[in-house]
Amino acid sequence: MVKNYLKIAIRNFWKHKVISAVNLLGLTLGLTACLLITTYILDEVSADKHWSKKNQLFRLVEVKQNGTAEEKSAFLISHVANTLHTKFPEVEAYTRGNHLEWQFKYGNKTIPAKTWAVESDAFPMFDFHFLEGGISSVDFNNNTLVISQKYAQQLFGKEDPIGKIIPRVSNSDSPESFKIAGVIENIPTNSHLYADVLFLKKYAASYDELSLFGNVYPQYVLLNENVNPEKLAAKASAYLTTLLKSETKIRLAFQPLQEVHLKSHAIDNDGSDSLGDMQYIYLFSVIAVFLLLLACINYVNLTTAQSLQRGRETGLRKVLGANRREVIWQFLIESVGFFALCWLLSLWMYKLTLPVLYTFIGKPLTINFTQSIPLFLCLALVTFLVSILTGIYPALLLSSYKPANVLKGFFGKANDRGNLRRVLVVTQFFVSTLLIVATIVVYKQLYFINHKNLGFYKDNLLHIEGWVDKDVTAIKHEILQNPNVVSMTISQWGPGDMTSGGMSMKVPDPLNPGQAATVYGLGADFDFLKTMQIPLKEGRDFDMSYAVDRINIDSLMQLDWTKYETTDLGKSLIINETGARKLGLKNPVGASIQFNGMKGRIIGVMADYHSTSFHNEVPIILLRANAHYSYGYPLIRIRPGKLAETTAQIESIWKKHFPDRQFDYTYVDDRLEKLYMNEQQLGKLFGYFSALAIFISCLGLIGLAAFATERRTKEIGIRKVLGATVANIFTLLSKDFLKLILIAFVIAIPLSVYLMNQWLQKFAYRIEISWWIFALAGVCIMGVAILAVSFQTIKAALSNPVNSLRNE
Predict the structure, then answer these.
(1) CA distances from 697 to 19, 27, 38, 189, 367 (A)
(2) What does pTM read for this prediction?
(3) 598-606/536-539 β-pairing
(4) DSSP 368
(5) Among 335, 381, 283, which Cα is nearest to 685's?
(6) How far apart are CA 167 and CA 161, in angstroms?
(7) How far apart are the first and last CA of the chain?
(8) pLDDT by residue (tens digit) across 699-713?
(9) How far apart are CA 290 and CA 201, in angstroms?
């Protein structure tokens, strides 16, 4: 019997080639899109769940109250984890360390490596599986590396790396060399702790000295089993506040390591570029369900659109002895078989498009449905269940026809069960409207970001990647000889970073008593404002003719910190507008200020500039300058139209001074654009999903139009005989569909406003959602729907009424 059912299904498929092909295309595209999105979601949510002690691993986070807002940072003073380990027995182990972008050389190869600097306790905390070497061969007192299998193959090929000495390529006069002590399995690419190289570091005793300021690092702890992290965080916060005699309350939080990857968008992180966002996971999950739902709705609508033809078939089968249960089984088997075909085609498309997904998100994923038997079987089961749920309504509808009626061409009340189909169409265009509005809002926010004044001029600005830790006075002088170079500066700030290598500290907030404000210190040379083209609002710039400007604070502190603390000399400082306002400085120029123990006097107020993305408010920034700044990021202003030529000339100068180091650079406008990579990807995805949703929805609309046109064939013929024009017939058949779309549009407006306002809250500087966004979305939806419906309605309007009335 099943064999006969399949034969009937195949014959029906070939009899209605066009509508079957459209149905097949819609379902296959919907299933493929759902598969791709699900692959990405599963990869994201599985991040850092492979560690065996994952439930005991936490990252320390400091919570600061900045005015009415909370600021969270994963950078803590170096002694914190050690202090907790010493005081609280609940802390079993800890490690400090940050992510670095280093380069290593072997032979003629120089390969960049994502490097994680860690301490010895990292090995019992995390599951680093050694393939060669081992922890016993690690010397933490010397420069030692453990490298991943992938990096070992890249740098050494088939050679044995154990024991080899390799130099780190850097902008330093004293390049370091490192010994390879082991090779470990590759860390999963979706891990927050992903690294090609582990730099095994032993911190000096001074890093464990108690202080309120100093070097800051991300810090991880391993807690004993069954420890309540919230209670421990409260005890640790109170203990540190008392121990360090802090004027403001210190607040610590223990963030589960499993949450770092997806729940850190509101935290100042350690530079790991592999972080995701849980909000996007929720969003993409909803979109995946919607796309699958749209594909299933499309199948239901196109199947029921054939009810007149299939109704006579059903009536004849009942006359020949089939009962309703057998008819239902027939249509369910057809549904399962059709979904199975779509499933196989979607798997084929999935394999073809998976590399495109890897390229789009910038990394390979650890999840693949075609390479995991459990996932493959789970996918097959889900597809089977969806096929049953989707096929049950057409099966019940078509099996309900009475043979005596359908064989006479009368379908009775069964033909009036169109309310569900109308609800399904409303649902389709409701989802499509949401996606179109989201696409417009995302692109409007990106347009706002790209055209808003940043406070500095981002174009024609070259940023040389990599921290320079040597005197570059001679290099700077040589580069400035180039007539196409306007100016150059060495700064602790790399555009796009909050303060990069700068310092920060909390000070009492005069505008919010009892709370603290965060102040960021930024070091640079005298040409910073000139090169960045940041205007001064009050006072003056740094000037070599002023002796107070020429004080080299860094050198003085290194020679005699006590002497500097007791001296009356005040280092010249420039504050930004936000700093002057938030620190309550009504007449900032000439005001004295202390920062991290350093005395200074404000000589000018610079305009606010966006040091990082628009997700964050402009911070309080204090700029201090040395005449010959010896470390930081080189930033070079180039004349318009001379970027490529001048960059090549700068590279030759750089190579002369740093022959072993790759000349890595970015243009600042490109660097800033990368800050919004997630939003740009989101905009593109919304665009793709909107197009796909509209396409699938229109397929369903075509099916509904075909169904309605077929039902009203005789009515259309009579109206044409009585003088109705093509426009009259088109309006008659189209208005019901447009009403459904209008209902969907009206329902979608309030929800889209709410959802997009929630998304815009991620930005400190954002657009307002204007009325024209909905007008544009409505025009798009209506226009596409009219085009989809017009094919069937105009065809019916142009038909010869004689053909539809001849059997009367």
Answers:
(1) 14, 11, 21, 37, 30
(2) 0.78
(3) antiparallel
(4) -
(5) 283
(6) 13
(7) 38
(8) 777 777 776 776 777
(9) 49
